[in-house]
Design a protein that fits this description.
Elements (H helix, E strand, L loop, with lengths): L16 E3 L2 E7 L9 E7 L10 E2 L4 E8 L2 E5 L2 E5 L4 E4 L5 E4 L6 E8 L5 H13 L7 H10 L3 E2 L5
Length: 158
């Protein structure tokens, strides 16, 4: 076991959050880092529709690092493919979303700076999805959750 002299050591399997087909594992929360960053893995199965709507956020940047497979991130209308060892920084205010158009599963590491965004968002979105029982989620509730956690739903798909 790794021991930290000062800091937080977390096993990513401590909590796995399922949001539809997505698998989220937080590595560092804002509370862990004194608010400087939040870091999590996001696993995305191949060929599955992604429940994440196009959105922006004014309170933090989002940096994506490809670990496995390829995800297509659409940022302000421009598609960008991110694969292993590639990085994309999404600035505050940029409307974005992601998709896995391939058959292979993908995994990315996501860092939000500052760390104002955390696991509570994904737990709440997972509850909205679960309440939909396989049908379309309640878009009004989904929008409320996004806004409560500092995300702004896009008015049109981007």
């Amino acid at each position: 076991m790794v021991q930290a002299v000062r800091g937080v050591v977390r096993d990513p399997s401590d909590e796995t959050i399922h949001v539809g087909p997505l698998v989220i594992r937080f590595l560092v929360s804002g509370a862990d880092s004194g608010g400087s960053l939040a870091m999590f893995e996001c696993g995305v199965p191949g060929g599955e529709p992604i429940p994440a709507p196009s959105h922006s956020h004014d309170g933090f940047e989002e940096t994506i690092y490809g670990l496995e497979g390829v995800l297509t991130w659409t940022v302000d209308g421009a598609p960008v493919e991110i694969g292993p060892r590639q990085v994309l920084c999404i600035p505050r205010g940029a409307v974005h979303r992601f998709d896995n158009h391939g058959a292979a599963d993908a995994k990315v590491l996501i860092v939000a700076t500052p760390g104002v965004f955390g696991p509570a968002y994904f737990r709440e979105i997972a509850a909205v999805m679960a309440d939909a029982a396989g049908g379309p989620p309640d878009h009004a509730r989904m929008g409320e959750v996004l806004r409560r956690h500092g995300l702004t739903p896009a008015l049109s798909g981007t």
